[in-house]
Description:
two-stranded parallel ribbon
Amino acid sequence: xxxxxxxxxxxxxxxxxxxxxxxxxxxxxxxxxxxxxxxxxxxxxxxxxxxxxxxxxxxxxxxxxxxxxxxxxxxxxxxxxxxxxxxxxxxxxxxxxxxxxxxxxxxxxxxxxxxxxxxxxxxxxxxxxxxxxxxxxxxxxxxxxxxxxxxxxxxxxxxxxxxxxxxxxxxxxxxxxxxxxxxxxxxxxxxxxxxxxxxxxxxxxxxxxxxxxxxxxxxxxxxxxxxxxxxxxxxxxxxxxxxxxxxxxxxxxxxxxxxxxxxxxxxxxxxxxxxxxxx
Length: 279
């Protein structure tokens, strides 16, 4: 376990100083900021404050935002499977199995950082327009009641999740929204890594984009039950029961399957070195 921790620490240090990772985070902020601008303009026009946690719940669950927000994350992990110049030394010291686990843990931790950064970004911007507490605000409640989508058309933002507002407090909705975004990003990152091990980095990116776009098209077609992207929007499945947790279980199961597959693929991957040991 110590070797895995060293690998993860080294990856975080190496990747966090990467221009590609920096640009990925900036792209995520820009995409979140675009939809945040409409929401904050709407709140300002109402003349009433909003809960500082609501913006993340609203923006993250906006379908088109979710379509593009993943692009920033893909830029962050675009180097999967992260074959660096010190690869041979790492393989010699810890073996393929531990190296593979280190890469997977890095993706999971980086996905948490990316999700947390997006959430913190919305909270910071909302702090100028809102309050902290458990209560849902009047502006968001009115947005949830906008069945005719008049507000959505004017401000380019929607929140049709009245059931979520009835079933959860704002902190609860924030936590569930955070968790589901994190699980989806972790799934996308591990899928990219596993596909890149089996095929190549470019082919892995094609596979991930195909899965992501297919989920979006299914979601827009109303097939939320089979859309993985729709599963990342908890409002789709909050109906007064606890059925939305099935989505969390699904993502965890998919992550487990991909991790097992990566352990198989990494043993067959050619690193073009004769100085490696099996760990």
